[in-house]
C-alpha cells in the first residue's frame, strides 16, 4: 500500500515538474518574444548566465546580434529578458525603480537576502533602503578626502612591487598588482588594517575564490532548475558551506571575528582617537541588537538609523566583493589602452604633471584630472564589467516600453550593444576615443550606466575614480618607466 502511494506520489511529482519545466521553457514563445533556443530544457541558458570564466556581457551581445534588441532567455526555469535600448534601460533603472528595485539573484540567495545577514548588494525593499541610507555618508566628499592618504599609501607600496618587477627587465602581468592594491585599500578603509601586506594578503585569493564559488554551486544551479524547491537546497547549501569550509564561509567567519573583536576593543576603550575610523567603526556607531523594517514605502519614508552586528558583517562582505575586482579590472584595462595609445598617455602625463604639483595629492587636484576621468569612462564603455550586478528582478508586474513584464521576471542589460550603439556614440563607437566624453549629449548621459543608474547606482563610484587616478598617476609620473 505505502509503496503504491510512494510510486504514485513520485510519478505525480515528476509529471508536475515536467509540466512546469515545459511551461517555463516556452514562456517567451507563448508571449511572442524571440528567445534563445536550448538543447537542454532543464538548464536552458543557465551555464552561460552562471559562468565564471566567460563573462556574460559578451554572450548577451552575441545573442542580441542573433535575436534582436529584445529577447528572452531562461536560466533554468527562470524567465529573463535582455534589453539594450537606452530608453528601456532608463525606464528599468530610474523611472520604474519602484517596480524593479530588486537586484537579480539566484532563487537560493533570494531566501538569504531576507535573513539577518542581508547586505547592500542583495538586500531589497525597506532593508536595502535603510542600509543604503546608513552607508551613503561613508562616501561623502568629506569622508573621501580623509581616505586619500590611505589610498596613496597603498599605491606607494604597489609601486615598490612594480619597481621590482620592472627591474627584472621582463614583461609581467600587471593585473595581480592592481588586485593587491585594491584589496589593500579595502582592507585598510573597510576593516581598519594598519599595515599593508600586498602579495602576502590571504584575502586576495580568498575573495577570488568566493567569486568562483558563488553562483556556481550545484545547490544554486539546482535552485534555478527548480525554484520552488529552494527551501530544500538552502539548508543543503549552508551545511555544505560549513562542512567544506569553502571560501565563502571562511570569509564570513573572518569578518564576523573582525567585527566582534572591534566591539570588544571599543568596550575596553582600546581604540584611540588618533585611529582613522574605518567602515566597521562607522557602522558600530549605529549598532543595535535588533532592527525591524516596515514595508517598503516608496518616497520620503523615514529609516531607522540602526544596524545589527550581522548586518555589519554582511556590509563588510559586500565591500570586499564589490570594491576589489571591479577597480582592479578597470585599472588593468586602462593600462593596456595607455600602452596601446601612447599619444593619449602623453596627454595624461602632461595633465598629471601640471595638476599634481605637491608632494601629497589632494582631492581638489584629483577633481581636475579630466583625462583620467574620460579614460575610465571610455574603458568601461568598451570593456563593461559588473553586468550581473546591474540586472534586476521585476517586483511588481508592469511594462518596459510596451512589453508586459511579470513579477519575478529578471531583466538583463546588454552593455556591449548599448555601449557600441552608433546612434548614441557616433560612427566611431567601436574605437577608443576618450575625448568623446568631453562633449556629452543627453543620449550619451542616459546610456552611461556602467556604474548603474538611479537609486541603486554604485555607491563606491567616487572611490573607484580616486583609486584609479592615484594609481595611474603614480605609474605615469615615475621617471623609471
Ligand atoms: C570600476 C569600479 C566599479 C564598477 C565598474 C562598479 C560597478 C557597479 C555596478 C554596475 C553596480 C550595480 C548598480 C546598479 O544596480 O544600478 C554596483 C553596485 C555597487 N557597488 Fe560598485 N563598481 C565599482 C567599484 C566599487 C567600489 C570601489 C565599491 C566599494 C567601495 C563598490 C561598491 C558597490 C556596492 C556596495 C554596490 C551595491 C549598491 C546598492 O545596491 O545599493 N563598487 N557597482
Automatic annotation (TrEMBL):
TM regions (residue ranges): 228-252
* Record bears the keyword Membrane: yes
Q: Which GO terms describe its molecular function?
A: heme binding; iron ion binding; oxidoreductase activity, acting on paired donors, with incorporation or reduction of molecular oxygen; steroid hydroxylase activity
Alphabetical list of Pfam families matching this protein: p450
* Key word Phosphoprotein present: no
Residues annotated as binding heme: 458
**Gene3D superfamilies with a match to the protein in the record:** Cytochrome P450
Swiss-Prot/TrEMBL cofactor(s)? heme
Keywords of the record: Heme, Iron, Membrane, Metal-binding, Monooxygenase, Oxidoreductase, Transmembrane, Transmembrane helix
The UniProt similarity line reads: Belongs to the cytochrome P450 family.
Function per UniProt: Cytochromes P450 are a group of heme-thiolate monooxygenases. They oxidize a variety of structurally unrelated compounds, including steroids, fatty acids, and xenobiotics.
The identity of this protein, by name, is: Cytochrome P450
Q: What is the lineage of its organism?
A: Eukaryota, Metazoa, Ecdysozoa, Nematoda, Chromadorea
Amino acid at each position: 500500500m505505502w509503496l503504491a502511494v510512494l510510486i504514485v506520489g513520485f510519478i505525480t511529482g515528476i509529471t508536475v515538474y515536467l509540466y512546469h519545466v515545459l511551461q517555463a521553457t516556452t514562456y517567451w514563445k507563448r508571449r511572442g518574444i524571440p528567445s534563445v533556443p536550448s538543447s537542454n530544457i532543464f538548464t536552458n541558458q543557465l551555464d552561460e548566465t552562471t559562468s565564471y570564466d566567460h563573462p556574460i556581457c559578451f554572450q548577451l551581445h552575441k545573442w542580441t546580434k542573433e535575436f534582436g534588441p529584445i529577447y528572452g532567455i531562461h536560466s533554468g526555469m527562470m524567465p529573463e529578458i535582455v534589453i539594450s535600448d537606452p530608453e528601456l534601460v532608463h525606464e528599468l533603472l530610474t523611472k520604474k525603480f519602484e517596480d524593479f528595485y530588486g537586484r537579480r539573484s539566484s532563487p537560493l540567495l533570494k531566501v538569504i537576502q531576507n535573513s539577518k545577514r542581508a547586505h547592500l548588494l542583495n538586500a531589497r525593499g525597506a532593508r536595502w533602503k535603510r542600509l543604503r541610507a546608513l552607508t551613503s555618508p561613508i562616501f561623502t566628499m568629506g569622508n573621501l578626502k580623509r581616505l586619500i592618504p590611505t589610498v596613496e599609501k597603498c599605491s606607494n607600496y604597489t609601486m615598490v612591487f612594480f619597481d621590482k618587477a620592472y627591474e627584472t627587465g621582463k614583461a609581467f602581468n600587471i593585473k595581480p598588482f592592481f588586485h593587491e592594491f585594491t584589496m589593500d585599500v579595502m582592507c585598510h578603509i573597510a576593516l581598519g588594517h594598519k599595515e599593508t601586506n600586498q602579495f602576502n594578503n590571504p584575502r586576495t585569493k580568498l575573495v577570488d575564490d568566493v567569486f568562483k564559488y558563488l553562483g556556481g554551486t550545484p545547490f544554486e544551479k539546482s535552485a534555478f532548475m527548480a525554484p520552488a524547491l529552494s527551501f530544500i537546497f538552502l539548508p543543503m547549501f549552508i551545511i555544505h558551506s560549513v562542512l567544506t569550509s569553502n571560501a565563502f564561509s571562511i570569509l564570513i567567519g573572518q569578518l564576523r571575528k573582525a567585527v566582534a573583536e572591534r566591539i570588544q576593543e571599543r568596550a575596553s576603550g582600546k581604540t584611540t582617537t588618533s585611529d582613522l575610523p574605518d567602515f566597521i567603526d562607522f557602522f558600530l556607531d549605529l549598532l543595535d541588537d535588533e532592527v525591524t523594517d516596515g514595508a517598503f514605502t516608496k518616497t520620503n519614508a523615514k529609516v531607522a538609523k540602526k544596524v545589527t552586528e550581522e548586518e555589519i558583517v554582511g556590509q563588510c562582505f559586500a565591500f570586499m566583493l564589490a570594491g576589489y575586482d571591479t577597480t582592479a579590472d578597470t585599472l588593468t584595462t586602462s593600462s593596456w589602452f595607455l600602452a596601446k595609445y601612447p599619444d593619449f598617455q602623453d596627454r595624461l602625463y602632461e595633465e598629471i604633471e601640471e595638476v599634481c604639483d605637491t608632494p601629497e595629492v589632494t582631492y581638489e587636484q584629483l577633481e581636475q584630472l579630466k583625462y583620467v576621468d574620460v579614460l575610465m569612462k571610455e574603458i568601461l564603455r568598451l570593456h563593461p564589467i559588473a553586468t550581473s550586478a546591474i540586472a534586476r528582478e521585476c517586483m511588481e508586474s508592469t511594462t518596459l516600453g510596451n512589453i508586459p513584464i511579470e513579477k519575478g521576471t529578471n531583466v538583463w542589460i546588454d552593455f556591449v550593444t548599448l555601449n557600441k550603439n552608433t546612434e548614441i556614440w557616433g560612427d566611431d563607437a567601436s574605437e577608443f576615443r576618450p575625448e568623446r566624453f568631453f562633449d556629452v549629449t543627453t543620449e550619451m548621459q542616459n546610456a552611461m550606466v556602467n556604474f548603474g543608474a538611479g537609486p541603486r547606482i554604485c555607491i563606491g563610484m567616487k572611490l573607484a575614480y580616486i583609486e584609479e587616478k592615484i594609481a595611474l598617476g603614480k605609474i605615469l609620473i615615475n621617471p623609471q618607466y
